[in-house]
Amino acid sequence: MVREVVLNTAHHFNWVNLGAAIKHPEQGKAFDLSDQINEQIGITDSEVKVIPWSGYGDDQIIRQLLEQEKPDAILHFTDPRYWTWLYRMEKEIRTKIPMVFYTIWDDLPYPMYNRDFYRSDDLLLCISKQTKNLVENVLKDYPKEEWQTQYVPHGIDETKFYPIINDLEFEAFKEKFYEGKEYDFVVFWNSRNIRRKNPGDLVTAWRVFTDQLTDEQAERCLFIMHTDPVDGNGTDIPAVIETMCDSKRAKIKFTNGKCHEKTLNYYYNMADAQFMMTDNEGWGLSLTEGLMAGNMLIAPVQGGMQDQMRFEDENGDWINFNTEFPTNSNGKYKNCGEWAIPMFAKTRSLKGSPPTPYIYATQVDVEDAGLSLLKCYNLGRDEIKRRGLVGREWLLSEEARMTARSMGQNFIDHINILFENWEPVEKFTIEKVDWN
Fold it and tell me: E strands within 41-145?
């Protein structure tokens, strides 16, 4: 998403990017990507620099960049706990330039422990509609101006993820991957093998689905998992398959490791549907990529996945969230885009840790998930494809604005408003505290 934001705003903003990695071998070097960006987006005057760094940064590199690069604003995103060091110096920064947070939060209850993080930002761009409502409620005692909290969904480049038609190279790729076999129904999962993604539930749901089929039907169904088969943060998926599945009926194939977007689009085009069973999911980027390629969605009703399903209220309007209606996970509204098969939670539990004391984890039942796969299968490939293409058209629409170009324009519009209205904060504030 960083890359797409830069590519779709480089004609308007110059960028200095601190490129984070767990342990970057080229930390501290600087790479000027301006020529590559100019060529890629067809302009002549971009200025884009990347400075590799181990971790998300620290106060010293920020002070150095403020002095050397003299930026007009700082943009950061992901979980605010990765940025505690940045927030500790927010007064130092915001006396000179504003801070912009591209923020997301997965679920209720309202994360009051994030309040001081949100208070420390001058512009909060919210990835999901639910995030926007969460942020506004957390800040109800410290309300910001309306322009300071805005909905900016993730956007996908429709020229990178798209339905492939009559492409011999793709057909050869598919033939090799399928090893000469033919399938009537293919489901794709593109995600990390980690606990909250519930890979074991996905495997079990696939078994539940194939149990509803004849041997001949099951033989022509395939579940592709693009992930590391074994991960210490998740589980040993092959061991789960061995125990939970009949290998002659529940066909599952792995593809792992990073791949080029062209290859990833091949996988999406081989699939009929994207399938997820996450406990907590802020957005679900692989769903959007798959939908842009013409896949249907089979996913839990939570976080930004609700946005992508386009649930309608009693007036037929795309739902919004508020204090009285903070989530649709309980199924208040059932009507959604015909490209989606929503799965409503069977259970809800409150998880937490000292930094994030509470957050709901909503669980989809494996039996329900298996029947959701069956519902999609029973539509038939032609109807599945038709619905997926309707979903792609919606992503491209002015209502959804879920293209990379629209996301970039959202950034430009809202950051321009920030520059027009922003005023430096005082170097310190005095607050009266009642100790009684």
Answer: 48-54, 74-77, 99-103, 123-126
